[in-house]
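Morning!

This is the sequence you dropped in the shared folder:
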Amino acid sequence: MPKSKRSKIVSLTKVSKKTKEQKGAFMKDVQENADKWQYCWLFEVGNMRNAHLKTVRRLWKDSARIFFGRGAVMAKALGTTPEEEHRVGLHTLAKQIKGQVGLFFTDSPPEEVLAWFADFHQPDFARAGNKATRTVTLPAGPVMQEHTTPPEPFPHNEEPQLRKLGLRTSMKRGVPTLDMPHTVCEKGKVLTPEQTQLLKLVGIKMVMFKVGLRARWTAANGEVVRIEGHDVDVDTEGADADGEDSPGAEENEMSE
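The structure's back. Tokens below.
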């Protein structure tokens, strides 16, 4: 029987497993940077977005090196016991590698690093699984796009999508219009895929990408210090809801 010429669906969400050679190269890279820099910071990410993490890497490209990959591989590279640690004290840092975390190598003074990350945050759209940070109600009248300045009404060709997402609209003078107010979400409740799509269409950002510093290793004396007051809200459910931005998804790219 001849093979079908019909187009086949290929999943783009599958990520090939790292080979032994790739893992070895990754570990060697981590160890070489542990030999190069004065400090190694362990950081966590709240509301992970690759685009924002790339921004951090770009802004620090001349004075730091970031690794964000599989925690187990990073921990192994540092060494999880006094006997296996690559440099004195690194096993203490390696034991704290849990969850969605990364390594930040730099020679910049600790005060400068703490101040920079305390100030850096990027708003973004929520994902399914995040909790609404506020109640959003669209008023009666034309449905407006808030990401434009000034806000503009949705074009007529987007009304089917708005109705699909739960809005009871009608066309008035060629503009999708609500006859009565519509509550998109309520503060504190978990957002559904339809709600997050609608919030994104309207232009309402509800989450904040932020990097929190957990601990710092100092090469000079091997001391590891826990960082207090720099925690972030790590919403892993929302971060991985659409299969993107998982810790190993861009391991090679983010460690360059």
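Headline: The longest strand covers residues 207-218.

More detail when I'm at my desk.
O.
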